[in-house]
Amino acid sequence: MLKEEVKSRLDQILLENPSLFLIDFSVSPSQHIKVVIDGDEGVTLEDCMKVSRAIEHNLDRESTDFSLEVTSPGATEPLEMPRQYTKNIGRKLEVKTSETTITGTLVSASAEGIKLEWKAREPKPVGKGKTTVLKSAEVPFTDIVKANVVLKF
Q1: Is the separation of the CB atoms in 112 and 101 below 8 Å?
Q2: How far is 37 from 56, CA to CA, in rounded Å?
Q3: How far apart are CA 15 and CA 55, in angstroms?
Q4: Domain 2-71: which topology?
Q5: What angle do CA 80, 109, 24 make, to 5 degrees?
Q6: CA nearest 55: which of 130, 133, 3, 114?
Q7: For residue range 70-118, what is the model confidence (pLDDT) as tens digits?
Q8: Which CATH number describes the domain made up of 82-149?
């Protein structure tokens, strides 16, 4: 009952704020509601408060005792949805597939997958020494096991 009511409120607030989207939503047996949202331009504190108010103000605390947590994914959290890749174009990602791990700059994202580019040092075709070459790979979403933004410090 509570889960369906919260989901209905969530659907409504996300419809009113199309740049926001749902990453995760759960209701624990102890009535702890956890909502994780992301946005095409990121998520502000105001966005989290807006979603929190939309849920909380429409639930009856007299009939249901609950706690509510609305957050955005942390910087170290893996990317979960194709829509998250679009907002990270231009950033360095570490993408794990079942065969390999690729670290490169995300240059594009489509409905099917992503394209990464990186520079590699390879032996020269003729003569001694190495040369820097630009490599790229297209990775379908179905092949991605885990993808994280590489943070710079």
Answers
A1: no
A2: 16
A3: 14
A4: GMP Synthetase; Chain A, domain 3 (3.30.300)
A5: 15
A6: 3
A7: 999 988 899 999 999 999 999 999 999 999 999 999 999 999 999 999 9
A8: 2.30.30.100
